[in-house]
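[stage:ingest] chain + small molecule (adenosine-5'-diphosphate)
[stage:ingest] validated
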Amino acid sequence: MNSAQVALEDVSKTFDNGGTQALKGLSLAIPTGQFVVTLGPSGAGKSTLLRTLNRLIEPTTGRIWLDGEEVTGADPARLRKIRHRIGMIFQEFNLIDRASVLTNVLSGCLGGTPALWAWGNRFREEDRRTAFIHLKRLGLVDFWEQRADRLSGGQRQRVGIARALMQRPKLLLADEPVASLDPASAKGILDHLRDINQQDGVTVICNLHQPELAREYAGRILGLREGELIFDGPPQELKVNILEQLYEVSIPA
Ligand code: ADP
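[stage:predict] done
[stage:export] C-alpha cells:
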C-alpha cells in the first residue's frame, strides 16, 4: 500500500474494561530513518500507540503496515517475523535481574523468549562477538559479567538498548526510555538512540513526556492528547500554544 516504513490507517483502540478510547482514528506514515518522538501527558495514548505497531496491543479498528507488509491480520508465524525486525526498549528496562549483562544482551537474539529459557540457553560464538561489539558501543564492556541488578538505571537502559540491537532491528520502539532516569543519564540514553538512528539508519519512535527533550532530539514530533494526534511536525514548529493544548495548561510568556 505504502512506501513508508510504518503506516497507520484510521487506527483506534478501545480497551474492554471501562471502554477507554486510548487511540482515536490515527492515520500517519513514517519514512525510513526518521527520529520520531511521540509527546504528550500521561494517559495520552503514547504507549498504546507504540504497542499497537507490533500488536502487543491489538488495535480495535484500522490497519498498520511495516515496510509495506500488513501487520494487522498477519498470522502468528508472520507476526513473529515482523516483530523480529522491531526492537523494543522499555521504561523499566525489563532485564533479567539476576543474569549478567552479557546474558541479558544475548537474550535479544531469542526475540523476547522467556527469561528461564534465555538463562539455560547456550549462545553461539558469533552472537557473543556481536554482543561485545554492542557492549563496547554502549560503554558497557567493563560490566559484562556484572549482574544486571547491580547497575545504575542509565547502565540498565544501555543494556536494554544493546539487547534490542542484537535483533538487528530496522525499527526501534522506545516506550518512555528515560522516564526513570536522572537528567544526565536521560540525555546519555537519547544520545545513544540518536547515534543508532544517524549511524545505522534505524528508524526510532520514542515516547517522551518532556517537551524540552523532544525538541532537542526529535526530527519529527507527534503530539498526542486523549488519543488524538493534535500536532505532527518538526520541533521548531512546536509552539507554546500547541504545548498548552497538549498539557492543558496556560504557559506564561
Ligand atoms: P501514555 O502512554 O500516554 O501514558 P497509555 O497509552 O498508557 O498512555 O494510556 C492511554 C489510555 O488508555 C489511558 O486512559 C489508560 O488508562 C488507558 N489504558 C492503557 N492501557 C490499558 C489497559 N490495559 N486497560 C484499560 N485501559 C488502559
